[in-house]
Amino acid sequence: MTSTIKTHRLSHQLRDRRNWLAYAAVMLAMAVIPPLAGDFGLYLGCVIICYSIAAIGLQVMVGVAGQLSLGHAAFMGIGAYATVLLQIRLGFHFLPAAAAGIALTVLFGLLMAQLIRLSGIYFKIATFGFGVIVYQALANWSSLTGGHTGLTGIPQIELFGMAVETRRQLFMVLLAVFAVAYALAVRMVQGRAGRAFAAIGQNEAAAASLGVNVSGYKVGVIVIGCGFAGLGGLFIPQLNGFVNPDNFTWIESLLLLIMISVGGLGSLAGAVMGAALLVVVPEYLRTFAEYKMLIFGMILIVSLTLMPKGLAGVATLALNKRAEGRRQ
């Protein structure tokens, strides 16, 4: 019995160590590669970070806790529009506007979390409907959101009296936010909440029999995932100089799901890898822009067929083989 407990603890320690090593590797790549690729590289780096933050939240919801959402991009839109509207209409500075935007996203996440009363496929369909409702509100409430035209004249970010004027400065801000958000996600997944999420994702009945508050943790993981989406979305208007509803359609929600699937379900680093792949590839295939969704579908099918554990699984396998080769 004692040896089993020790083995279990050692397994958890090794997993936790791998998570932090993956965190270090991802942060190093993010900090080094985009700046070396010039201004366009910095732009892509900013986009990757925005989608990575949202994808990490979705990964915790889907890959860890098993709560599939088909409307995740809607919460990116809520965070983006709330932040911008508070700045433009009420004259808020960026930080309080961003904090309020995330808070509003969390409240809407709490509202969607009430849908857990629905079971199975009905919950998934309801999340899709929630995303459609948010998109329609953003697209048709013209007096507030600007409708399909969207909003322009996005105010600059000001942090502690300093204006963020260049793309490099914006990238550095995003990198700092990403570092904190990613670290919090790793810490959460490794903690008590993360173990409860994983138990629910594997078997809800078994988790309940062990004393896990299944309903409470399901609400919690949905709220957390939506909050991460809002955090990722609120920087998109700052990056593009405008915001419109087309950034937050059901297609974007599908894209986020493809990101975590290609990267590897259950892996936070995989969510970032999937986001990077699906942001960069379309930029170099602009000639085939009209076939973008076809390309994404092919990437998903190839990934699930040849890499069932995603890019993160391939990376882990390669590192394990290299370690075994060194031992020999």
TrEMBL record:
It is found in: Cell membrane. The chain crosses the membrane at residues 20-36, 42-62, 69-88, 94-113, 120-138, 170-189, 210-236, 256-281, 293-319. The keyword S-adenosyl-L-methionine does not apply. InterPro entries: ABC_transp_permease, LivM-like. One of its GO terms (molecular function) is branched-chain amino acid transmembrane transporter activity. Keywords: Cell membrane, Membrane, Transmembrane, Transmembrane helix. It holds the Pfam family BPD_transp_2. GO terms for cellular component: plasma membrane. It is a multi-pass membrane protein. Coiled coil: none annotated. This is Branched-chain amino acid ABC transporter permease. It comes from Parapusillimonas granuli.
